[in-house]
Specification:
The complex is a heterodimer of chains A (about 375) and B (about 475). Chain A has about 375 residues and is an alpha+beta fold. Chain A has eleven helices and eight strands. In chain A, strand 2 and strand 3 form a beta hairpin. Chain A is globular. The radius of gyration of chain B is 31 Å and the shape is globular. With about 475 residues, chain B is mainly alpha-helical. Chain B has three domains: about 100 residues, no CATH class; about 230 residues, MetI-like (MetI-like fold, Orthogonal Bundle); about 90 residues, no CATH class. The chains are: A alpha+beta (about 375), B mainly alpha (about 475).
Chain lengths: ~375, ~475
C-alpha cells in the first residue's frame, strides 16, 4: 500500500478543520434563521420587485421580478466595465509608449500622470469626479451644445441617437467585410509562405471595411438619421432634454475614474513589456533587412505582447471588480440594485450576497479564460 | 556665407538659424505666458483661428530652424536630443509646454492667491479660490473621526510610541540585530495590538494594556537569559502566556476594581474614524494578511493534493470577488453564521474581512517568488537533511521574499487605497468623514477642497511607500 500516515495525516487534519468550520457556520446559520423565522430559498427571484431603477439597458420597472432587477444590475456592471476597459486600454497603451519616448517632456508628463493617478484611492477619485467636478457643469438650460448635437450638463451627457433603417443589411455587410478580411489575411499568409509575395493586407482590409458598408448605404436601402436631443421645459425652472441617448453623470464619473485609474497600471504593463525585449532582437531583425515597421510588427510586438497580456488581464479583472464601487455614488450596478435595494427589501442576506459574489466570480473567470485563450494563441510555441 | 535654404537648416548658417529659431520659439512661449498670466493677447489683431494657433506655428517653425544635427554647441545638441528629435516630437513638446504654462495660473490662484486661510466660519470664504478654512475647522474630524476631542492625545501618544518602537531597527547595534526579525514578527505586533485595542479603546480594558506592557517587558528581560536555541519558541509562547497569566490569575480582581475607579474613558469603535482609522486598519491588515498569505502560498505548492485544492479554492475565491461584496458579507451575512449571543465588533469584522481578502493577493505574490527560485535551492536544502519547515524557513522563504518585495509593496499599497471602502459597514475613515462633512448644512459646497485635501494626503502616503519599497528592493538586490 502506498498510503502512509505521514501523507494522510496533514491532509486529514486540514479537511477536518475546514469541515468543522463550515459545519459550525452552517449550523449557526440554520439556528439563527429558525429563530428569526427566515426561510432559505431562491423563490423570491420570481416575485415582483416593486422598486424602480433610474438607468437600465433593458425594459424594467417595479412590476418586474427580482431576477429582472438582477439582470438590470448585471448589465449595468458589464456596460461600465466594457466602457472602462476600452478607454483604459487605449489610454494605457498611449501613456505606456509615451513613457518610453526619447522626448524628455513627454516622458515626464506620462510619468507624472502615472504616479499621480495611481497613488490616489479609486473611491476618492470617483467621489471627486462625481461630487466635485461633474457638479460644476451647467444646468440643462444653460448648457452649450458640443458640435451642435451633444449636451454636457449636470444631469448627464446627452448625445444623439442613431435611427437606422434596414439595420440588418448594414450589419450583414460588416460581417461580410470581416469574413472577407479574415480570408484575405489567410490567403496572404499562405502566399507569403509559399511564394514569398507580400500583399498590402492592411490597405485591403481598411478598404473592405469602408467600402462594403458604403455599398449597403448606396444600393441596400440602409438609411441612418440622428435624433438630436431637444431641450424641453417641464416647469418654470425645470428643464430636461428629450430624444437621443442620455448618459447619467454616475456612469460618466464611474467610467472616467475607472479608466483613468486602471490606465496607469496598464501603462506600466505596456512599458515593462516593451522594455523586456532585448536590444539584440531589434538589431538582429534590422540586420536581416526588415524595415522599422516590420521590426515592430513581426519581432517586437509578438514578444512584447507575451509579457504584456497576463498582467493586463489582471488589470481588466480589477477594473471589473472595482466597478462595484458604483454603489458609493448610486450608479445602479449589481451591488447597488441587488445587494443593496433588493437585500433591504427581502432580507435574504445569505442568498443575495452569495449570488452577487458568485456572479463576480463567474465574470472574473470568464475574462481570465478568454485572456488565457488569447495568451495561448499568441504564445510562442516552443518545440 | 553660403546660400540659405530655409527648408533645410544646416550647420553652415548655424548662427542665422539659431537666432531666428530661438527668437520665434521665445516669441511663441512669451505669447502664451502673457496670455495666461496677464490676459494679454499679443496676436489679438489676427483673425480668431489664426490668433489661436499662432504660438504653435511660430514655435514649430522655431524648433524646426534650430534642429541642426551635430551643431557643436553642447546645449543645443542636448535640447535637440531631448525635446526636438523630429517634427512630431517638436509639436508634442510645444503642446506640453503650453499646457503647463496655461494650467499654472488657475491652479495657483485656486490653491493660494484667491484661497482663504484665516477665520473659522464659512463667511470668510467669499473668494473664487479654495476655502482652506473648511479643512482647518474640520481638521480634528478628518484626523480622528468622532473620537472625543479631549481624549485624542491617546491616539497621538499611541502612534508616536509605535513609530518610535518601529524605528528600533535603524538604531539596533550589531549585537541586537539578530533579534530584530523576532522583534518585528512577534513582539512589535503584540505591543501594537495592546496599544491600539486597549489604550485607544480605553475603558476597563485599559488594565489589559498595562498587563500587556508588563508581560512584554518582563519577557524581554527574561529573554536575555534563555539559551538562543530555545529563544524562538520562548518568544512565541511566553509573552502571550504571561499576559494571560497576569490577566486571569494574578491581579485580576484587584485591578478591575481599580479600573472602575479611574481608568481611561471607553471609546467605542464606532466613534473611531478619520485618518487614524485608516492607519489602524492598514496596520493590522498588513500584519495579519502576511502570515495568512504565506500559509496559503505554501499550501498551494504543497505536495498534498487536498491541501493544494483547498488553498487554490481559497485564493481564487477571494481574488474573484470585489472587496465591497466581501465587506457586505462581513456586515450582513457573517453575523448569521455566528451563534446568536456571540458578538464581534464591527471594526474587528472589517479587519478580518480585509485581511483575508488581501491575504489571497499576498499568497499569489509569494507563490511567484517561490516559483522563481531554482530547483537547486530545494534540492540543496534537502540534501543537507533539512525537513519541510527547516528548508522553507532557513533557505527558501528568505530568498523568495527578497524576490517579491515589489509585489508585496504593491499589495500593501492596494490595501491602503482600499481602506476607504469600509464606509460599507458604516465606519468612516477620512474619505467617509469628508462625505459626512460635505453634507453638513453649514458647510455646503466645499466638496472640492475636501477631496483635494484627502487626495494630497493619500498621494503622499502611497508615493512614500512606493519609493520606500523601491529602496528596499535595491538594498536587498542580490546578483543572481
Amino acid at each position: 500500500m502506498n498510503f502512509k500516515l505521514k501523507d494522510i495525516g496533514p491532509q486529514l487534519l486540514t479537511v477536518i478543520a475546514v469541515v468543522l468550520v463550515f459545519g459550525f457556520f452552517t449550523y449557526n446559520a440554520q439556528v439563527n434563521m429558525e429563530n428569526r423565522g427566515i426561510d432559505f430559498g431562491y423563490g423570491f427571484l420570481s416575485q415582483e420587485s416593486s422598486f424602480d431603477v433610474q438607468f437600465s439597458l433593458i425594459e424594467y420597472d417595479g412590476s418586474h421580478s427580482y431576477f429582472r432587477a438582477y439582470l438590470v444590475g448585471l448589465l449595468n456592471t458589464i456596460l461600465v466595465s466594457v466602457i472602462g476597459i476600452v478607454i483604459a486600454t487605449i489610454l494605457g497603451v498611449i501613456v505606456g509608449i509615451a513613457r518610453l519616448s526619447p522626448n524628455y517632456l513627454i516622458n515626464k508628463f506620462a510619468a507624472f500622470y502615472v504616479e499621480f493617478f495611481r497613488n490616489i484611492p479609486l473611491l476618492l477619485q470617483i467621489f471627486f469626479w462625481y461630487f466635485a467636478a461633474l457638479r460644476a457643469l451647467p444646468l440643462p438650460q444653460d448648457a452649450e451644445a458640443m458640435f451642435g448635437i451633444a449636451f454636457l450638463t449636470i444631469k448627464g451627457l446627452y448625445v444623439p441617437a442613431f435611427i437606422w433603417q434596414n439595420f440588418n443589411i448594414f450589419f450583414y455587410s460588416i460581417v461580410a467585410a470581416i469574413i472577407a478580411i479574415i480570408v484575405i489575411r489567410y490567403q496572404a499568409k499562405k502566399l507569403q509562405e509559399t511564394k514569398g509575395k507580400q500583399t498590402p493586407v492592411l490597405l485591403i482590409s481598411i478598404g473592405l471595411i469602408l467600402v462594403l458598408p458604403l455599398i449597403s448605404f448606396l444600393i441596400g436601402g440602409v438609411r441612418l438619421s440622428f435624433e438630436v436631443p431637444v431641450l424641453k421645459q417641464l416647469a418654470t425652472t425645470s428643464f430636461i432634454y428629450e430624444g437621443g441617448v442620455s448618459l447619467p453623470p454616475e456612469l460618466i464619473a464611474l467610467a472616467l475614474s475607472l479608466s483613468l485609474y486602471t490606465a496607469t497600471f496598464i501603462a506600466e504593463c505596456v512599458r515593462a513589456g516593451i522594455q523586456g525585449i532585448g536590444k539584440g532582437q531589434k538589431e538582429a531583425a534590422a540586420s536581416i533587412g526588415l524595415t522599422p515597421n516590420q521590426v515592430l510588427k513581426l519581432v517586437v510586438m509578438p514578444q512584447a505582447l507575451r509579457i504584456i497580456i497576463p498582467p493586463t488581464t489582471n488589470q481588466y479583472l480589477n477594473l471589473t471588480k472595482n466597478s462595484s464601487l458604483a454603489a458609493a455614488i448610486a450608479y445602479p450596478d449589481l451591488v447597488l440594485v441587488f445587494a443593496g435595494t433588493a437585500l433591504m427589501q427581502t432580507g435574504k442576506a445569505i442568498e443575495i450576497v452569495s449570488i452577487t459574489m458568485f456572479t463576480y466570480l463567474s465574470l472574473s473567470i470568464a475574462i481570465s479564460l478568454f485572456m488565457n485563450w488569447y495568451n495561448n494563441k499568441i504564445a510562442i510555441q516552443e518545440k | 556665407m553660403s546660400k540659405i535654404n530655409f527648408l533645410k537648416p544646416d550647420k553652415s548658417n548655424l548662427n542665422t538659424f539659431l537666432y531666428l529659431g530661438s527668437f520665434l520659439f521665445f516669441v511663441s512661449v512669451l505669447d502664451v505666458l502673457l496670455n495666461s498670466f496677464f490676459s494679454l493677447n499679443l496676436t489679438g489683431f489676427l483673425p480668431g483661428f489664426l490668433s489661436y494657433f499662432l504660438p504653435l506655428i511660430l514655435g514649430f517653425v522655431g524648433l524646426y530652424f534650430i534642429r541642426i544635427e551635430l551643431s557643436g554647441i553642447k546645449h543645443l545638441d542636448q535640447l535637440n536630443k531631448h525635446i526636438n528629435t523630429n517634427n512630431f516630437n517638436a509639436i508634442l513638446s510645444l503642446l506640453i509646454i503650453f499646457i503647463i504654462i496655461k494650467s499654472i495660473p488657475p491652479i495657483l490662484s485656486w490653491f493660494f492667491v484667491d484661497a482663504s486661510f484665516a477665520g473659522d466660519s464659512k463667511d470668510v470664504c467669499t473668494g473664487t479660490g479654495a476655502c482652506w478654512t473648511y479643512i482647518k475647522v474640520w481638521m480634528r474630524r478628518f484626523m480622528y473621526g468622532m473620537y472625543p476631542n479631549g481624549e485624542q492625545w491617546r491616539i497621538n501618544l499611541s502612534f508616536i510610541a509605535l513609530a518610535l518602537l518601529g524605528s528600533v531597527g535603524y538604531f539596533a547595534t550589531d549585537k541586537f540585530k539578530k533579534y530584530l526579525t523576532l522583534y518585528y514578527v512577534v513582539i512589535y505586533p503584540f505591543i501594537a495590538f495592546l496599544f491600539i485595542f486597549f489604550f485607544i479603546s480605553g475603558g476597563p480594558v485599559f488594565f489589559d494594556f498595562s498587563y500587556g506592557i508588563i508581560a512584554a517587558i518582563l519577557s524581554i528581560i527574561i529573554g536575555f537569559f534563555i539559551p538562543s536555541k530555545f529563544k524562538f519558541y520562548y518568544f512565541l509562547i511566553v509573552p502571550f502566556g504571561l499576559y494571560i497569566l497576569l490577566k486571569y490569575f494574578i491581579f485580576y480582581e484587584e485591578l478591575i476594581e481599580l479600573g472602575k475607579l479611574d481608568g481611561l474613558n471607553w471609546v467605542e469603535t464606532g466613534a473611531w474614524g478619520g485618518l487614524s482609522l485608516t492607519f489602524i486598519i492598514s496596520f493590522f491588515c498588513l500584519i495579519f494578511c502576511f502570515p495568512i498569505g504565506m500559509a496559503f502560498a505554501l499550501g498551494r505548492r504543497s505536495g498534498f493534493p487536498l491541501i493544494r485544492y483547498i488553498s487554490i479554492g481559497f485564493i481564487e475565491f477571494w481574488r474573484g470577488v470585489p472587496l465591497i461584496t466581501v465587506l457586505f458579507m462581513s456586515a450582513v451575512m457573517f453575523p448569521m453564521f455566528l451563534p446568536a449571543d456571540f458578538f464581534i465588533d464591527k471594526l474587528v469584522r472589517c479587519i478580518i474581512a480585509i485581511s483575508l481578502f488581501e491575504a489571497a493577493y499576498v499568497a499569489e505574490v509569494i507563490r511567484g517568488g517561490l516559483q522563481a527560485l531554482p530547483r537547486g535551492q530545494y534540492e540543496a536544502a534537502k540534501s543537507l537533511g533539512m525537513g519541510y519547515w527547516r528548508m522553507h524557513i532557513f533557505v527558501i522563504l528568505p530568498q523568495a521574499l527578497k524576490l517579491v518585495i515589489p509585489g508585496i509593496a504593491n499589495t500593501f499599497l492596494a490595501l491602503v487605497k482600499d481602506t476607504p471602502l469600509i464606509f460599507v459597514v458604516g465606519l468612516l475613515e477620512i474619505v467617509g468623514m469628508l462625505n459626512l462633512a460635505k453634507t453638513n448644512p453649514e458647510w455646503l459646497g466645499f466638496a472640492m477642497e475636501g477631496y483635494v485635501f484627502a487626495a494630497i494626503i493619500f498621494w503622499i502616503i502611497c508615493y512614500a511607500m512606493s519609493k520606500y519599497s523601491y529602496n528596499l528592493e535595491q538594498k536587498y538586490k542580490t546578483d543572481r
